[in-house]
Amino acid sequence: MYEAHKKKVLLSIYLMADETPVRVLESDNPAVRIKAITGLITTVSKLVLFDYRPGRGKEGPRQILKNFKGHLQTDGYAVYDEYGSKAGITLMHCWAHARRKFVDAQDNDRERLIMC
Prior knowledge:
The chain is of the alpha/beta class.
């Protein structure tokens, strides 16, 4: 079922990708936990695919998006930068994350003015 669902999601011409950190058990001992990442990919048709990975490296996106063609929207996380130069992919970034950069710059300007 998972593979059929993944195939359907990846046939979309528009995907949004993001990672969500979750804590998972590493062993039978409930005190031993590791931080892992669940990749979230959504489509216009509101399909969602969770792809569990033990970290936020490039290998996860490379494996799952290796045959994808279309528009890929991310939060600007650097592991997705390589998709901006791949044939058949239009890389887009989230406006909320772009806005954050302007707000941060504005806050930094205010702090500098206060310090002067």
